[in-house]
């Protein structure tokens, strides 16, 4: 298993007391190339002329960039493995995977080598590593943080976000990223923990998280059945639109999981994509209406604890289908999501658009009863 920082950037020493920032290698840092987790991308990448806007905002608030961190190939995975570089070691659960695709940023924070991990979340790529590494995280409302200077995967869902070891640091980073954007003013109210979605998680995760949602409503959300399939179709179509021309011209090699997803993405028809987009629009509208009164959706951040590491020939695939069933709702509707670490997993709280600050405050005051991460 490998170090969280990419091997072509030496670590820098931050001044004492200054928040240290680790940046995922799909996000531009001035003077450094962006490799997107693939050596062929890195080989032709030029040093970035300027910081991505999210990096600039955090620097202006006082953060100090200490390095760029490993990511899964093209950020198109939730596993935290990379066929070219290897799997990033999980400091919180030795011998287990870190989760992806913001694997390096999560591991750097969990190891205490950074105070903030800057990553991206398309289908759960911040929330899953947070759950696996015992971290807090924020996926912001889709339109509130600029994606300028970030290599895209699926632009309809991509958003930069943060991983930290505590709620206070997460709130500090959120203020830096969200300061100049309008927030929602309606107060947050009831919590909904739908039983049919919680059934996607393993028994041990449900039992561990149950005390945090004891007073929540547990009504099923059967109206969102089919959301995962529609989301995956649109994500794949957009990923191929972004990366297909480069793949055709350079013929790069991919690991089996990412390679299979890209091959499937290349076969998505215009008709299938249009049908999936129509379904997503329906799901998005339903979810916005559900949360319009201040309801907070509470879900397991991942369906299980961090999977054990194994050599590639013995490694089983992480439970991607169950994971996406839990993570796709915030993604498809562009909603803010906060992960609260608890035991070997995490609780994900989702609110209506613009409620990022209120959701962070609710998480810190109501749900911050996390136990030590035990792996």
Automatic annotation (TrEMBL):
Domain of life: Bacteria
Domain Amidase positions: 17-182
InterPro entries: Amidase_CS (IPR020556), Amidase_dom (IPR023631), AS_sf (IPR036928)
Pfam families to which the protein is assigned, alphabetical: Amidase
Database matches in SUPFAM superfamilies: Amidase signature (AS) enzymes
PROSITE patterns reported in the protein's UniProt record: AMIDASES (PS00571)
Name under which the protein is recorded: Amidase family protein
